[in-house]
Amino acid sequence: MGAVHICNLFGLTLSQGGLMNLLRRAQGCFRAGRDAAIATLRKAEVVACDETGVRIEGSNAYHWLFHSAQAVVHTASPTRGAVVVREMMDGHRPAVWISDRYTAQQGHAAEHQTCLAHPARDVAYVVEASDDPVPWRLQLWLQSVFALAERVTDLAAATLSAKCRTLDRQLGAILTTPSRCDLTRDLQAKISRARDQLLVFLAHPGKVEPTNNGSERLLRPAVVQRKVTNGYRAMWAAEGEAAIRTVVDTARLTGSSSFGAILKTIGA
Predict the structure, then answer these.
(1) pTM
(2) Which residues pair with 50 in a beta bridge?
(3) Given this model, what pLDDT does residue 1 score?
(4) Of all residues in the chain, what percent are helix, strand and coil, respectively (each to 5)?
(5) How many CB atoms lie within 10 A of CB 237?
(6) Gap between the Cα atoms of 149 and 152, Å rounded
(7) Integer Cα distance of 213 and 210 in angstroms
(8) CB within 8 Å of 165: residues ≥ 6 apart
(9) pLDDT tens for each residue of 108-158
(10) Domain span(s) for CATH 3.30.420 in the chain
(11) Helix (H, G, I), strand (E, B) or coil at 153
């Protein structure tokens, strides 16, 4: 389709192979910007990460996303393993890592903030499926946490510390409440395993988000691309698009437009 559009717009006859060669050469212009973004990421104190599945060369693979306040890095990989994180961070351990509870995302920073949107969905399901009061109490607890998150930068450190202790004490009481409901007990066990990762954001007001929605928003274009095209025929294409997204999304952090970032990079 790309070759057809070029012919219609500019009167040029271009084969699919010729178009691929043009794209491959153009993608090389984004390597320096990608390297710079990675270097910046490896100095960040707070890093958020997520990944989504994608088809590359006919096989299941993954589109990874890492971001901090100063950089956004996309990367394509055939694996969902922790090796992708280790290679990306190259030994750097941030102060806080933000992600879901997936095992490969654990242990990469001094502290870990679990995305609260995930337990909130789990709690909402059990509230609907069970008459047990414990899930309802957990839902009210999470609502209190989200309400506090909205004004976290307006409160003094001592106040936040006191509220954190109160919330943790309340959560402990909820998690140790006896229940005959299997769903409730499973939910209590799941949240108990993540208990030390739920309120980390309160110790870093304005720097750590309570959810990983920022990563999910940055991944959304890749998800749309996957649904429209069903993936990539070659790894170089997946890596090239990751490099372009890295440069564009990092430039947006400073207010640059997508078109402006692409034009500046190709014209450099």
Answers:
(1) 0.90
(2) 65
(3) 47
(4) 60, 15, 25
(5) 19
(6) 5
(7) 9
(8) none
(9) 999 999 999 999 999 999 999 999 999 999 999 999 999 999 999 999 999
(10) 2-113+212-267
(11) helix
* Pairwise CA distance, residues 154 & 69, whole Å: 20
Write the CATH number of the domain with boundaries 2-113+212-267. Answer: 3.30.420
How many Cβ atoms are within 10 Å of 159's Cβ, its own excluded? 11
Q: Kindly write down the DSSP assignment for every residue of 156-176, as one continuous string.
A: -HHHHHHHHHHHHHHHHHHHT
For 69, residues 6+ apart whose C-beta sits below 8 A from its C-beta are: 44, 46, 207, 253
Are the C-beta atoms of 95 and 208 separated by less than 8 Å?
A: no
pLDDT of residue 55: 94
Supply the pLDDT for residue 230: 84
Taking every pair of Cα atoms in the chain, the longest distance, rounded to a whole number of angstroms, is 74
The list of the chain residues with pLDDT below 70 reads 1-9, 14-22, 268
Please give the pLDDT value at position 7.
64
* Sequence-ordered list of residues with C-beta below 8 angstroms from that of 58, at least 6 positions apart, any chain: 233
